[in-house]
Every structure is written in C-alpha cells, then in structure tokens.
Amino acid sequence: MAEAIRQHGLSLRGFGREQHLEPAKVRFDTRPEALADCEVVLCCVKSGATAETAASLVPWLAPGAVVVSLQNGLDNAGILREHLRSQRVVPAVVGFNVVMHDGATFQQSTTGPLVIEAKEGSSDARWIDALRSAGIDVELADPIAPEQWTKLLVNLNNAISALSGVSTPTMILSSGYRRLMTMLLDEGLSILGAAGISTAKFRGVPLPLMSFVLKLPTPIVRVVVRAQLKVDPESRASMYQDLERRRPTEVDFLNGKIVELAEAYGMEAPLNRRIVDLVHGAESAAKGCPNLDAKTLLRALQSATSPALV
Questions:
Q1: Residue 308: is its pLDDT beyond 50?
Q2: How many other CB atoms sit within 10 Å of the CB of residue 226?
Q3: Do 98 and 166 belong to one domain?
Q4: Does 136 lie in the same domain as 161?
Q5: pLDDT in tens, 67-90
Q6: Three-state SS string across 95-135, please?
Q7: Element (H or E) spanning 83, and its range?
Q8: Which one of 77, 186, 197, 304 is separated from 269 by 20 to 30 angstroms, measured CA to CA?
Q9: Shared domain check, 135 and 279
C-alpha cells in the first residue's frame, strides 16, 4: 500500500464522485506511534485483528482520544474497551461497501449511511460534523445494537459472495442465489427471535419483509432494489476479496455469530454452520474463490453430510 501511494497517490471513487490526492498530500504510516497526536482514531481492521491492534495502541493513544469502531460484527467495541481504558470507544455501522483496486484506489460500490452510536449535540458533534462535511451520509443511533444486528444479518450473504465469486447485482438478480440469501437470513431471524433480540430496519424495510421481497420474481426484485440503493456492477463482498488475497475471513464473526447464539439458547443453526465450514475449507485450500454456482451451494446447505466442495 505504501508503495502504491508513493507511485500513484490515493484515489476515491463512487457514484459520480471522484477524488484524487497526490502522494505528497497523503501521510501513510504503519507505526502505531503515528497516532499519538490524533483526537479521533478510526479502527477499520478485520474483527480477528481487533485485540492485537488495540494492544498495540495502548502506549500511544492520547488520554481522551475517541476510538471509533468501523467494523463488522458485534464484539469489537467491547474488545477495544478492554484494552483502551483511557479512551472512549464509539461503535459504528458502515452501511456501504468499498472495493479496493490496484494502485491505492478505493471505490464505494453500494450506497448507504454511516451509523454512529451518538446523539445530536453531544461531545461527538465536532468530528461527526467533519465526516458530514466530507460528504459522508451520517446517521446517529443510540443504542446501536439493533443496527449492528441488522448489518450482521444482511452480511450473512457475504459468504455466498465469497464462495461464488459473483457480483452483488448478479447475486441479487439471480433467483438461485437469492434463495440461498433468504435461507441464511431466515435462519438468523429465527435465532434472534428466540433470543429476544431486536433488529433495526434495513433502509426503512423490516428484515422479514426484505426476506419476503427477495423471494418474489426477479423483475419485481429489480424494481425494489433500484428504489432502495445504488449498486456498482462490480460490487463484491469484502469476504470475497479476503479469499482472493489468501487472507483469513470474518465468517466466524458473521455467520459464526449466529451459530454461537443458537448454541447459547439450545438451538441449531445448520445452514449458517455449514456455510462457515465451506468458507473455512476455501481458506484452507488457499486457492482463492472456489467459484461455486448456486445449485452446488444449495446442495451443500441442504445436506450436512455433503462431501468437501473446496
């Protein structure tokens, strides 16, 4: 990344907006001590790296610095708080997707807000206003847990993207892949319902209604999706990018969280458990995305005794 920025600078793209920063205007540093003078630190590492990252920051962050967790999953803010006792940790939900391209180019590939656990007029107003002034759509929620659970349930389909390699629009507009999406989502909703956990609406739509819509014929789904969000044709889940780069995925913190919750309440989540196993199989194979089609994935989910597919 440092070499790419040195050669090309930093480019940001998304839905009619583009910004390029020349190399001299970008400060890139991998040393934790570089954050010592920061009032606000945005933590964007993968969930599996949260504890290690937090521990590395302990000697360097200024007392009173705000640490914002821009991460998937439910537990990252708590892990950060365990280590960073002199800082205030603020959880947030990133409601849009970003794809990283070669040459330090980052492209926003779906629309959506950044949801932060805060109240209007609070002590966080200064840095939240800074985000808004940069053109970021910011919404506030207090508490944020329902928003986090909704994001997690929506992200259950990241594993489908990772195992199939198809773009987000292809996945949404394919009845086969949509069936897989609703299977994982419905199982997650059932588990959360049994646990008494509330979810927020997703872009104004309750998740059970979203599941219903995804089961409708493709022409209807196309109309509804166009009204709800913009999706870049090349959009793919970050889990797919992780497999392609031979990096550990966050499947344990997404689909695995549903499995963990089910076990805590004496239930089973066989579909999400199976998808976790498939993603781990792809990680172990270290060959990138296995490019499984919808029928193959469906057979794998319908039978817990299916042979290894990756």
A1: no
A2: 10
A3: no
A4: no
A5: 999 999 999 999 999 999 999 999
A6: CCCEEEECCCEEEECECCCEEECCCCCCCCHHHHHHHHHCC
A7: helix 76-83
A8: 77
A9: no
